[in-house]
Design a protein that fits this description.
The protein is an alpha+beta fold. The chain has two domains: 49 residues; 173 residues, 2-Layer Sandwich (60s Ribosomal Protein L30, Chain: A), CATH 3.30.1330. The protein has six helices and ten strands; from the N terminus they run ααββββββααβαββαβ. The strands form two sheets. A seven-stranded mixed sheet has the order 1-2-3-9-7-8-10. Strand 1 and strand 2 form a beta hairpin. The longest helix is centred in the N-terminal third of the chain and has 29 residues. It is rod-shaped. It starts with 11 loop residues before the first helix and ends with a strand.
């Protein structure tokens, strides 16, 4: 069978005849195709140009989330250090109990003290700055000094480089008035010490002020223990030792001495 190699191909004459048959419609169709192709190619070119522009893909890029380091956990709070109070080994001299203690000032200078406290049945009369009671008996000054300053007590005080007279007031009453009363009691006690020690011995006063809340257990309504009679002899001291600081340090942490925290003041002053 002989194959016509020109089958499927139209001659220019046939194409021209077709154009003549379809006329304007044929022309418009080709125009639309041409314009559409041009628009398509232009759109593709514009898209490629846009995609190649810097930052085009930025909105779609997933930025890595910043690594936020967790704050380190705070170190555990240290457990409070509980300092057990210690009892001072005492010595009894008549109606006076002697507490030998040692302390240091802020600079580390040492001082040793003999704290003399009359037994608990001796107290200042409530509201008074001059009278002392033993039990239910109010003592005259002469009787009081005879009972306090026994020979063994005098020996402690006369050997001291300095002596300290302490005044305290109980929790009743207005604070300023009680602080003033405690100060007056310390000065009265300083006068008693002046009758015992040598004229050149320095005499100091310590005003503890008014008694405040403390853990001491006593009979309900009894505040006499809050205003004891206290005298102090300085047994030894380093040169330039601050006696106020050293004494405050010495009485701290003692279970059988009046705590500084139980009173409102700690006013130390030279009396003589």
């Amino acid at each position: 069978m002989k194959i016509n190699q020109n089958e499927g191909f139209r001659s220019e004459k046939e194409k021209e005849e077709e154009r003549d048959r379809y006329g304007f419609f044929w022309w418009w169709t080709n125009f639309v195709r041409t314009v559409g192709s041009v628009i398509f190619l232009a759109a593709v070119a514009a898209g490629v140009t846009l995609m190649l522009s810097p930052g085009y893909f930025d909105p779609w890029l997933l930025e890595p989330k910043p690594v936020v380091e967790a704050a380190p956990a705070p170190p555990p709070e240290p457990a409070p250090v509980i300092v057990e109070k210690v009892a001072v080994v005492t010595e009894r001299k008549g109606d006076t109990v002697v507490f030998p203690i040692e302390g240091v000032d802020a600079s580390g200078r040492k001082a040793a003290f003999d704290v003399l406290i009359l037994t608990k049945d001796y107290n200042w009369v409530k509201g008074s700055t001059t009278e002392v009671v033993k039990g239910s008996e109010t003592l005259t000054e002469a009787d009081l000094l005879a009972r306090i300053f026994l020979p063994e007590v005098r020996d402690v005080l006369t050997k001291a480089s300095d002596v300290i007279a302490v005044g305290a007031a109980s929790s009743e009453g207005q604070s300023e008035a009680e602080i003033a009363r405690a100060d007056a009691r310390s000065k009265v006690s300083a006068g008693w010490l002046a009758t015992v020690v040598a004229p050149e011995t320095p005499i100091w006063t310590l005003n503890l002020g008014q008694y405040q809340t403390c853990s001491t257990v006593v009979e309900a309504g009894d505040t006499s223990f809050q205003r004891p009679l206290i005298l102090v002899g300085v047994n030894s001291k380093d040169a330039d030792a601050n006696l106020s600081e050293a004494l405050a340090n010495a009485i701290g942490g003692k279970s059988n001495l009046p705590s500084r925290d139980c009173y409102s003041r700690f006013d130390f002053a030279r009396n003589r």
